[in-house]
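ok here's Spore cortex biosynthesis protein YabQ, seq below lol
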Amino acid sequence: MPLELEVQFEIVFYALAAGFILGIFFDIYRILRGKKGHKIIVMIQDILFWILSALAIFTFLLYTNFAFLGPYVYLCMGVSLLIYIKLFSKAIYKLENIIFFGTKTIVRRSYKNASYPLRIIWSKINNKN
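and the structure came out like this:
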């Protein structure tokens, strides 16, 4: 039984969105993984990322289009991922990098400022002994 045209457009739209979301997750993963590391560890991390991504995309498609995985769903996801990587990845990667390291800096400075009085008290206690 063929699907209605409206349903097919929804499936294509959600497949395109899934590819775009996968691209964003890949950029976040690249930031968290970093550039250095042992090749075997990086390979294991890559495999785990793609397994987790496959589960996340399947869950996304399950909730949006009842996990209808026709050939054009894979094609649309691949095309949107390729478009994301070629057109948007560089700018979004920079933005995510700024957000990630800005948040990291704020948390680190807040922790240092909040723990400063405790470190002074601790050093005074240790100097008495």
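fwiw The radius of gyration is 22 Å. kinda neat tbh
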